[in-house]
Amino acid sequence: MKIGIVCYPTFGGSGVVATELGKALAAKDHEVHFITYNQPVRLGSFAENIYYHEVNVSDYPLFDYPPYEFVLASKIVDVTRYEKLDLLHVHYAIPHASAAYTAKKILEAHGIKLPVITTLHGTDITLLGRDSSFEPVISFAINQSDAVTAVSHSLKNDTYKLFGVDKDIHVIPNFVCVEKMHFEKSSAFALKHAPNGEKILVHISNFRAVKRVEDVIRMFALVLEKTPAKLLLIGDGPDRSKVEQLCRELNTCEHVIMLGKLKNPTEALGVADLFVLPSESESFGLAALEAMAARVPVISTNTGGIPEINRHGVTGMMSNVGDYEDMAKHAIYLLEDEERLAKFKDNAFKRAKQFDIDKILPAYEELYESVLK
Ligand code: GMT
């Protein structure tokens, strides 16, 4: 098949999922055309069957807001006509699903049929979706898609609750390439950051309010009272300075290592003992799944789609949103007993294998085939 993929090319989970999906499809001999405003972060060097079409949004002095959605729609039309795409898979409802609808209608006028699959990722529904100014467009674009998928049951339910959507939503969970997440424990990396064999906790996010990164610092301060440990923070975003300030207040700076944005977190996950995800809401929690694939148990909240991957008392532990004291108790419970921690690490890895790309990719291929029929 010739498949067009539209996504945000940034560090966010939706861009990661879209890119890894495209790479996996290309490896199975599909021809994949990424249509994005930058080269997707996880694309890496070019591989066979992968093409990248840049959406260039010029900044005309006339516009206060550059018209990304129309430029994207025009690019979709152009790529579909000249590359002869069989279908288009858009990730993230705003504005990708509506740009796809515009493109589809333009192509119809040229006698070309372009089936559109929309994948909902989370913030497009649970955060932006709460803004009523988006509602009519999102509901319409979702309903007009030829097929719609959501990355968890929780997100599917939220979509029905928040929008006037009557379209059937297929749940296709996010995935991880377990093989690629394997990283030989780098003793140099571990020695640098935890020179005395301290336990290592890791948090990865975009440091937005929804991630509650300050809860990571508060729970870590409590963990430090019981056991020597280091905290690796990966990512960057609006809450970073608040997080730095809190480290200073709680006197934890010496033990908190801010690594910033990393294209590939596998090396850091390879030395981690626990992954911490205290999010306010999370449609899936791809970062947690990637951690589990690297054999790291997850200390998380029990919100949104997280319970669909993290199993309390098996692959990690879960607490209510904001209850960092409970999260600290859970972390200490796992860190204080080597045998218990090893068991949780094994369980996390086994659970991640259930979401291996090889298991999830066929669901997308079947959906594409059904749409083409
Ligand atoms: O988590 C973010 O803020 C980024 C966001 C995105 O759109 O890239 O992530 C969402 O999609 C991911 C991939 O499907 C999910 O794993 C995340 O749980 C989801 N984030 C939220 O729901 C907050």
Question: What are the main properties of this structure?
Answer:
373 residues, Rossmann fold, alpha/beta, 43% helix, binds ligand GMT, 2 domains, 15 helices, seven-stranded parallel beta sheet
What would your notes on this structure say?
- Helices cover 43% and strands 17% of the residues.
- It has 373 residues and is α/β, with parallel strands linked by helices.
- The strands form 2 sheets. A 7-stranded parallel beta sheet has the order 3-2-1-4-5-6-7, sandwiched between helices. The chain has a 6-stranded parallel beta sheet with strand order 10-9-8-11-12-13, with helices on both faces.
- It folds into 2 domains: 2-175 and 357-372, Rossmann fold; 178-353, 3-Layer(aba) Sandwich (Rossmann fold).
- Ligand GMT binds at residues 12-15, 17, 92, 121-123, 126, 151, 174, 206, 208, 210, 281-286.
